[in-house]
Description:
6-stranded parallel β-sheet
Amino acid sequence: MSISSRNLVxxxxxxxxxxxxxxQLWLLPWxxxxxxxxxxxIKERFPDDIVGSPGFLRQPHRVLGDPYAIGTYVxxxxxxxxxxxxxxxxxxxxxxxxxxxxxxxxxxPMAALSVDTEQVNQFCANTDRFVLAGCCxxxxxxxxxxxxxxxLYLDLGENSSEFQNLLCKVHEFYLKEFDLWxxxxxxxLMFMDDWGAQQSLLISPKQWRKIFKPLYQKYIDVAHQxxxxxxxxxxxxxADIIPDLVEMGLDALNSQxxxxxxxxxxxxxxxxxxFWGEIDRQHILRSANVDLARQAVLRVYAAFLRMGGCxxxxxxxxxxxPENVWAVYETWEMLAG
Length: 337
């Protein structure tokens, strides 16, 4: 009897000699719009072992527009995104809380707490794949959307009572949402924040540990207390905080490995945390040389596979070539065999 995707992922996360390497493809609408046939072939040939649960909200979010269409999109928090490229999420140009006077009128999207947990549990029962929760706390990014990046960096320096109140309000809401999902039958939960620039963190590691590490520790603790695995995504150079994430008990990390020293990460962390992808989408997945994609997979495999500890993930996003994405999963499958 073949092992289920759910158990395959769990074995990879637990360093329990999975029979093969679990996989997951992240797709942006840019890819499905531009390469519909190729995307269908990739998904059919290399199906995902990890899926996300739908939100199953009893009260729908109040949003306006399409986040991936050219034009304006208003998300469930009321943040306004301006988008100039089809298939890719835009940016917030006008912060919702530009001055602290506006903070009193702000409230989180309470509809996110109206989850029909019975439907979530039924979804989990009807699939043999590993299910991630339909929520994703992102406190640092949410604060950027609410305050604007320039204001937020000043806030972090000043650390005023107004900033502390807003941070607490955002975090406490996310914690309630995380706890709600942790009590369902999903297999894992995820949080995210893009912390890195190309060569360093966006703030000092000391400041990150003081302000944001305690928030993430609470998310991780909630997940583990409910018997769930916990995943994190963070773009950019984040090598300085990976020791903290390992110490905190994070199970799986998705990061831009190829802008860091992969072999150094291997020496420090292989066998201690599962590397949930990825393959370089800045250069390799865009390259006309398919062999680069194959070589990248071999490098990640050699660095991190330790009786598990690897998930074959990559992102098919703007600029990537379908033949490279195919080569990534074909190579992982060859290695697994």
